[in-house]
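In full, the data.
>
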Amino acid sequence: MVKEVLQSGGYLLVDEIENHFNKEIVTTLVRFFMDSRFNKNGGTLIFTTHYPELLDEYDRNDGIYIVRNRNGITVENLSYILIRNDIKRSDAYQSGFLEGTTPTYEAYIRLKKSLANCKIYFE
């Protein structure tokens, strides 16, 4: 399917791409779609990920969309959120700068307490 989209154009959608391929394959795949020598007909790769390091593979912010949950789900173009290109996108994500993309510390503590009170039985 990847070969077809690169040769003929069209769209390739992959949910949680890191669950289907290892990091090196994902990085190579992203680069193929960004390289006009391989992607002659403007094929588009659309994927979701929980690997913030994959965001660093892009030269530009306008091809990255961030889904956030702050009083409801929103989808925003990263170029409107992160103006500077000299900041690693993965650092911005992991630092919490992109609010609503990662669970809060309070949510983590609530989950931890809830799990501590659960009784787990093994047979």
Notes: Helices lie at 2-8, 23-34, 78-81, 89-94, 105-116. Residues 2-116 form a domain with the Rossmann fold fold (CATH 3.40.50). The mean pLDDT is 78. Strands lie at 11-14, 44-47, 65-69, 73-77.
